[in-house]
Every structure is written in structure tokens, then in C-alpha cells.
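input
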Amino acid sequence: MTVLGIDDWGIWSAYLLCILGAIFSVVYGIINWNKGDEEVYPEDVRWVRDEKKAEEEV
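output
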């Protein structure tokens, strides 16, 4: 079967996987757009405070 002059099924499967991968990436990005808001722990706050203090000393 020749479609657009390409006979090899491996080439067509590569094209198909690239297109499906792009569609999956877009859908995944839309679903997880604003997720990732993580809880702020006291040790994180302490680390930022110490980091700012170290930058001011330099």
C-alpha cells in the first residue's frame, strides 16, 4: 500500500506515534495546567530565610 509515496509501515507508524504523542502532550498539559500547588513546609520557609541572609552577606 502506497500512501503519499511511502510504502514502509515503519515510517507510517513513526508518523502516527509522533502525532499521537503530540496530542497526548497537549491533553496532559491542559488537564494538569494549574496542578502542582504544593504545601509550604516550615523547613522551606527557614531555608529561604537562610538563603536570603547568605546572599545579603555576600
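quick obs: The chain has a mean pLDDT of 88.
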